[in-house]
Write a structure and sequence with these properties.
about 220 residues, alpha+beta, ten-stranded mixed β-sheet, Aminopeptidase, 10 strands
Length: about 220
């Protein structure tokens, strides 16, 4: 699957305006030549979930118009999704209203928009499927367990929306996130190879057998 990257190009001036030169250089280097294995993980929403608790109280809610400027300032790369109106973006805030976490929960109503504006983001979703995408914890709130707590609450919103299957894509070497997803009932569903060659992205998928285990589980068993 070949993926266009015009949405990234549209954010470059904004990224530079916010002084994120190091990040931009790293991103261009990655897109020039890199190969990265990823796990498409899947969760059966009928499985009971014991949500982890963050170290501080948080409130999870949908995006509001006034939230966009602080998100773009911190994470300019998400501007295309915000401009396109890709639904639904959820925030976790402190009880004082400070944004500490952002993540999209995408359903099948967004298939046409994804095909038009975000080619390769994910295969078309069925009516009973939803995708978690672009999780980001604001730097000052990292190390507080916010991601697990917020994601669990967003997963519950998928349940109330009627989703049976919930998906998330995580790098194979992101051990902390994989272990958190494992505790939340996400299991390896496929293997995805993300290959950048001269600013062109190719995604290839391999179906994993039923009952496939994480690499860290196999290492533990050994």
């Amino acid at each position: 699957m070949r993926v266009k990257w015009s949405s990234f190009l549209r954010t470059v001036p904004l990224v530079l305006a916010h002084g994120k030169w190091a990040w931009l250089a790293e991103e261009f280097t990655r897109r020039a030549f890199s190969t990265r294995p990823l796990y498409p993980l899947r969760r059966d929403t009928t499985t009971p979930l014991k949500p982890p608790q963050a170290n501080i109280p948080i409130v999870v809610r949908p995006l509001r118009q006034e939230d966009i400027p602080p998100i773009v300032k911190q994470r300019p790369i998400r501007l295309p999704a915000l401009r396109a109106g890709l639904a639904t973006c959820y925030l976790a805030t402190t009880t004082q209203g400070q944004i500490c976490y952002v993540q999209w929960l995408i359903d099948s109503s967004q298939n046409e928009l994804i095909a038009r504006e975000f080619t390769g983001l994910c295969p078309p979703l069925s009516d009973d499927e939803m995708l978690l995408k672009w999780a980001y914890t604001f730097p000052r709130f990292r190390g507080m367990g916010i991601m697990g707590d917020a994601m669990a609450q967003i997963c519950q919103k998928a349940v109330t929306s009627g989703a049976h299957w919930l998906y998330i894509l995580v790098a194979v070497d992101d051990l902390a996130t994989l272990k958190m997803c494992s505790r939340m009932g996400f299991r390896p569903h496929q293997m995805c190879t993300q290959s950048w060659r001269f600013l062109r992205l190719t995604l290839s998928f391999e179906q994993l057998p039923k009952g496939a285990r994480y690499a860290f589980e196999q290492n533990t068993a050994a």
